[in-house]
């Protein structure tokens, strides 16, 4: 586990690095960035522009699936990466079809049946289009992440399971960061419970209730799937991951109980601290891997600790500040989660072997991964800011002429009609 810089280094001579890098950047732009912009436009009910961007992404995706590969050192792209490319093309095709159907139907209705326009404008087809748009963005993320895996020939054989685990858990933490940003930045989610007592509305569930429920369910799955009970001997990894599953469902049950009646609770954040500590203590084959896992654990513990501070001391167990504004500290927990997710995705064993063989140290690698986390976090905030701009809110996330309405009664389409286009 010595990480000294002595000894012969592996010579790395990539084939056509310039064209492969350009291909990946093009994939990032047209299969992740463009669909995410289209998703925002779809949820803001700007169908024409959303559909235009989906057409652009579909054209590139089909062309890439047919003619462009991310070949590994042996000259072929692995089946998972190529299969994801074809699946994304099909998904984009379905999205474009539904969007075109809506667009055509709206034209016919507006032209010949204007009196029934409002009755079907935001029905099932719109919901299907938005759902497909979400799936396109998620699949585009997977496609962009699988491309380097395919290029370097990672994740074959015994490494497949570890790659899947790092990819899924890393994406889960980034997704959790997005959820916390979403409920923080979107005003009617942040403020609706603030106005509930005055309007007599029945409050819903606190964020921690849903967090605890999901953690409990995930813990049950981990408890019984990380080890083949009664069919194989226990390994160190089995003990580690099964124990983590046990504490997640046990803590999740406590969190669900404490979060009843719309109360805030520290339990989900405390589970993040336990998880971060456990992951930071996992011994790895290389020192660089141990150190990267350690920083990942610190990021996760930072997310948990800062979330407890936010809930208990910044907000005093309230859903938001008394004036409804966002406190700067509230951005810290979701950023730590995004950082933890990117670091965990970057902690793949084969990736770290390559970094070690190239002569880089852990600090440089961690800084690069952290830079990626900053970019991802910025992109999340930019998408949310664009959405608020499109539906008629200012860039600070404060409501223009806000009047409280129940979340259950809120219709995004009606809001889009009542507010001027940005």
From TrEMBL:
- Domain called Protein YTP1-like C-terminal: residue spans: 140-387
Task: Give any Pfam family that matches.
Answer: Ytp1
Regions that span the bilayer: 21-43, 49-67, 87-109, 129-156, 168-189, 266-283, 295-315, 327-346, 366-388
Please provide the record's keywords in A-Z order.
Answer: Membrane, Transmembrane, Transmembrane helix
**InterPro entries per UniProt:** YTP1_C (IPR018827)
Question: The organism sits in which domain of life?
Answer: Eukaryota
Q: What is this protein called?
A: Protein YTP1-like C-terminal domain-containing protein
């Amino acid at each position: 586990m010595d990480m000294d810089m002595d000894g012969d280094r592996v010579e790395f001579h990539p084939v056509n690095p310039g064209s492969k890098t350009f291909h990946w950047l093009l994939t990032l732009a047209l299969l992740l960035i463009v669909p995410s912009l289209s998703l925002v436009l779809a949820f803001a009910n700007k169908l024409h522009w959303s559909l235009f961007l989906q057409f652009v992404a579909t054209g590139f995706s089909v062309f890439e699936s047919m003619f462009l590969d991310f070949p590994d050192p042996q000259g072929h792209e692995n089946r998972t990466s190529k299969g994801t490319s074809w699946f994304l093309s099909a998904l984009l095709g379905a999205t474009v079809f539904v969007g075109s159907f809506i667009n055509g139907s709206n034209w016919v209705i507006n032209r010949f049946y204007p009196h029934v326009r409002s009755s079907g404008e935001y029905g099932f087809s719109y919901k299907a289009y938005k759902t497909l748009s979400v799936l396109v963005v998620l699949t585009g993320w997977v496609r962009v992440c699988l491309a380097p895996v395919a290029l370097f020939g990672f994740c074959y054989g015994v490494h497949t399971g570890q790659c899947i685990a790092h990819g899924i858990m890393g994406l889960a933490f980034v997704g959790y960061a997005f959820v916390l940003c979403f409920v923080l930045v979107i005003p009617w989610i942040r403020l609706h419970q603030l106005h509930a007592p005055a309007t007599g509305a029945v409050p819903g569930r606190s964020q921690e209730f849903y967090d605890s429920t999901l953690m409990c369910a995930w813990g049950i799955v981990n408890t019984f799937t990380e080890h083949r009970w009664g069919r194989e001997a226990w390994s160190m990894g089995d003990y580690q991951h099964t124990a983590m599953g046990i504490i997640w469902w046990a803590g999740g049950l406590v969190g669900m109980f404490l979060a009843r009646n719309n109360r805030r609770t520290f339990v989900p954040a405390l589970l993040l601290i336990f998880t971060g500590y456990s992951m930071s203590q996992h011994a790895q084959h290389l020192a660089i891997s141990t150190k990267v896992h350690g920083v990942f654990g610190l990021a996760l513990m930072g997310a948990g600790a800062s979330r407890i501070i936010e809930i208990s001391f910044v907000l005093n167990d309230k859903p938001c500040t008394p004036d409804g504004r966002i406190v700067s500290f509230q951005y810290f927990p979701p950023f730590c989660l995004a950082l933890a997710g990117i670091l965990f995705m970057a902690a793949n064993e084969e990736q770290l072997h390559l970094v070690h063989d190239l002569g880089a140290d852990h600090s440089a690698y961690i800084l690069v991964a952290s830079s990626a986390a900053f970019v991802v976090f910025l992109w999340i905030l930019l998408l949310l800011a664009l959405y608020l701009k499109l539906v008629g809110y200012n860039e600070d996330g404060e409501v223009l002429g806000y009047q409280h309405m129940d979340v259950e009664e809120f219709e995004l389409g009606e809001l889009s009609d009542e507010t001027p286009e940005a």
